[in-house]
Amino acid sequence: MTAPTAESAAQSQADLLSVDADFLWHPWSPSRVSAETTVVVAGDGCEVQDVDGRRFLDAKSSGLNATLGYGCRPVIDAISAQLRQLMTYDMGEGSNVPAIRLAERIAGLTGPHLTRTFFCNSGSEALETGIRIARFYQAVLGFPERTVVVSLDNAYHGSTMAAAACSATSSPVADDVAPSGFVTVRRPGRAGAESIEGPEGIEDLREFLSANGTRTAAVLVEPVQGRGGYVMPDACLREIREMCDQQGILLILDEVMTGFGRTGRMFAYEHAGVQPDILATSKGLSAGYMSLAAVTTTTRVFDVFDRNKDKAGFVHGHTHSGHAAACAAGLAVIDFIETQGVLSNVRARGEQLLDALEPVRSMPGVRDLRGRGLLVAVELDRARRAARVKDHMRGSGILVRRTGRSIVLAPPLIITASQTDRIAQALVAAASAAASEAP
Ligand SMILES: Cc1ncc(COP(=O)(O)O)c(C=O)c1O
């Protein structure tokens, strides 16, 4: 792990947090910093180090984006080489080599149907782009009334206008500031049937589409919901695909969190054997080394725009679309996943983690254990108990994510067997300690 710089070492975590509290507006809340906030200065493999020199095993991969861990040399070298040669070149007027190569490489993984990639900078932008593509697509085809985008409850699709309108929120004013045309229906498995076999649980979506299919542009689904780690049953995903096909509705899959290996396949849709019309990816594409997201569509969707250029085309883009150094990172990440056995590691470590966590299932205060690949959740009976589990984990030197009453584990995909054991043992101990505390 690289030693902290002289400037960072000279300041304590407490000093930095007091400056942070005065000047930084953190995502999600204006008042999020606490004495427990970790100011990270260095990382190596699956570990990070804070300003005061404490080391933590990062079982949440930063924001689930550090999929190849910290200090991954091939990715760093690819970015530096690209930066030295050409940091980027505008994709509106021109093109650049890493963007061309990365789009081709993604098509090699998602083809033969998903062939056309639009680059942007974040998961939210990818969903925003996907939603606009779906609405433009329907309008260009002569169905301007098809504007509704249906998402599932408990979803998270991002923070831009449309992406946020498709996401569950705890803000009481969220509906007041949301754009129109976004509908949320119940997600499968909510009644406790978290089976990943049966198609039960999509009645609400079916009902909505049978009444409103002709005004619906797209259905938007996360194959595994990051919030709480709910796995979309494979049979449900297949049913949703069929419903969309029957009614001319586009299926957008949000693989911002699951894409590029998180579930043990390159894309989570592979488990169900169905493909979307629009695929959004981001976190695992650049593994946290650069800001990059991709929206990959079918040839059919792209051709509708291409054939109808006279109808204004797709008026959408970003200055940093296809940033050359970010795309160079993406190429190096895919190389690493393919050559270093990352997907088989995810499958082995994911199974190991679920097996080793099995004892928590029967503990008082624990409601469920579920997951796919290296996206695993332990659901407690209350958010407060989950918060205590998270604190116990931090005390054991392991950082985890909490969403509501669930602890979500999503370590880097390169995690070792012994690190996996360490996470599981600490979580069993933390859940056991939290079980004996008052709810
Ligand atoms: C499934 C999913 N979609 C979209 C987003 C938004 O991505 P970003 O934070 O890069 O805007 C996230 C972020 O956590 C996510 O998990």
From TrEMBL:
GO molecular function: pyridoxal phosphate binding; transaminase activity
Stated name of the protein: Aspartate aminotransferase family protein
Keywords: Aminotransferase, Pyridoxal phosphate, Transferase
UniProt family annotation: Belongs to the class-III pyridoxal-phosphate-dependent aminotransferase family.
Cofactor(s) needed by this chain: pyridoxal 5'-phosphate
InterPro entries the record matches: Aminotrans_3, Aminotrans_3_PPA_site, PyrdxlP-dep_Trfase, PyrdxlP-dep_Trfase_major, PyrdxlP-dep_Trfase_small
Name of a matching Pfam family: Aminotran_3
Classification lineage: Bacteria, Bacillati, Actinomycetota, Actinomycetes, Kitasatosporales
